[in-house]
Design goal:
This protein has seven helices and ten strands. The protein is α/β, with parallel strands linked by helices. It has three domains: 98 residues, Rossmann fold (3-Layer(aba) Sandwich), CATH 3.40.50.300; 70 residues, no CATH class; 41 residues. The strands form two sheets. A six-stranded mixed sheet has the order 6-7-8-3-9-10, sandwiched between helices. Strands 2-1-4-5 form a four-stranded antiparallel sheet, covered by helices on one side.
Length: 261
């Protein structure tokens, strides 16, 4: 059985230049292989192409060059041959719907069979500890709860792959820390393949199987995280890995910086 979910080769993405300027190339021949059930973190500074890459994998951006195979099948631009769950920096909930109605809307849109919906909701509301809030509206919930609800919505459409674009960056550190632990529990229970974008080196060190360090539209370093699971947030080994990751991150950033005259 082929355990490769995504195989990306020479991926290039350009945006048109303004006022006749040359196109802006944000992805420059990116290569990447993602395996089933992996938790990969893509770490990099703002503007390095992380979110653009997720938009292409999700099918939101069909304009690129290069090759993407998905589960052994050719990726047709804008139409991935598997189901993708996508979490953004903001929860993007519909404010006029309750928590449960937001999830129902997503499941209907993705044509999840009606007979499976109650079971899926019960499971994922329980996993995220939101059972008691199914009838609440987004404005009645905290930021962390809304982000957990966005995760419920993504999981209930039964995605093959979960893409997460800095989903905890807008939260206070205590809430974000709890949600990182919750996410690993959910990942262990569901077995989803997760590609998680962040610019937080400790978050990446704690969560991932591998860190892909991006700069200037390319993967500059790949760092395996060989720490046993389940993980302890205060494990000295993770602190040491994070120290090395930060050092490499600074080296990559320095190499990418334009030379001063």
């Amino acid at each position: 059985m082929n355990d490769v979910v995504f195989s990306v080769r020479n991926l290039v993405k350009e945006f048109p230049g303004r006022d006749g300027a040359a196109p802006l190339r944000v992805l420059k021949g990116l290569d990447l292989v993602v395996h089933r059930n992996e938790f990969i973190c893509i770490l990099g500074p703002s503007g390095c192409g992380k979110s653009t890459f997720l938009n292409i994998l999700s099918g939101l951006d069909p304009r690129y060059s290069g090759e993407i195979d998905v589960g052994g099948r050719k990726f047709k631009a804008g139409k991935p041959p598997l189901r993708i769950g996508y979490l953004f920096q903001e929860p993007r909930l519909l404010p006029w719907l309750t928590a449960e109605q937001n999830v129902d809307f997503a499941m209907r849109s993705c044509r999840i069979p009606a007979a499976r919906r109650a079971e899926l909701k019960d499971r994922h509301f329980h996993l995220t500890r939101l059972d008691a809030f199914r009838g609440h509206y987004p404005h009645q919930m905290s930021g962390g709860m809304c982000q957990r609800l966005a995760l419920v919505r993504a999981l209930c459409v039964e995605p093959d792959v979960l893409l997460m674009d800095e989903p905890f960056s807008g939260l206070d550190e205590l809430t974000a820390r709890r949600l990182r632990v919750d996410l690993l529990d959910i990942w262990r229970d569901t077995g989803k393949t997760i590609i998680f974008v962040t610019h937080n080196s400790y978050e990446a060190s704690f969560l991932s199987d591998r860190i892909l360090m991006m700069s200037q539209g390319e993967v500059q370093q790949e760092i395996p995280i060989d720490v046993a699971r389940p993980r302890d947030y205060d494990d000295p080994e993770i602190f040491e890995i994070n120290r090395r990751v930060v050092k490499l991150f600074l080296e990559v950033a320095e190499a990418a910086a334009p030379a001063t005259p």
